[in-house]
Amino acid sequence: MPRRGGAPEVNAGSMADIAFLLLIFFLVTTTIETDAGLDRMLPPMEPPEDNVVIKQKNIFTVNINRNGQLLVEDELTDITKLKDKAIAFLDNGGDGTCTYCKGKNDPDSSDNPDKAIISLKNDRETKYSTYITVQNELVAAYNDLRDREAQRLYKRDFTDMEAEYLNSETPKSVKEALKEKVERIQKLFPQKLSEAETSTSN
Fold this sequence. Notes:
It is found in: Cell membrane. By secondary structure, the protein is of the alpha/beta class.
């Protein structure tokens, strides 16, 4: 029988199977890094039945304008002083009910940490880097106060305890012991950081 001319045909039927297996391999083995983001509680779907009256002195206002300037309690403030001002507000203990507060007990400032609220408002044209820096300074104020109380009660920093508690590799028995301590410190200085509606520059 005479031999037919031309190049021999290549059976490509299994190529699709190989490509599919490679695709599955890369999907399974590839890790995608994700940002942790900001830990914030959203407001409830339904407003509370009782109208809660908040005294103005229990609200620490922080405004960021379009140029990245800070107005803290209506005073132009350098961002390096923001954390100290926030600590002074949170730790004030104006009504005398806070036995662990070490502030000035100024009657014109916050009554106690449980009532103290930090209100942050920014302009739509505020740079994201400035916004994050301000957020970090405010959270650092809470962490410094929590670290102080954790050292007083448990001889270790709160941030270390919280990191260990949130670590997925921490044994369950250790987590249960840490949970009570972490929640106790959080109640001493609850993080009440509210973001007001963003303003628009004219």
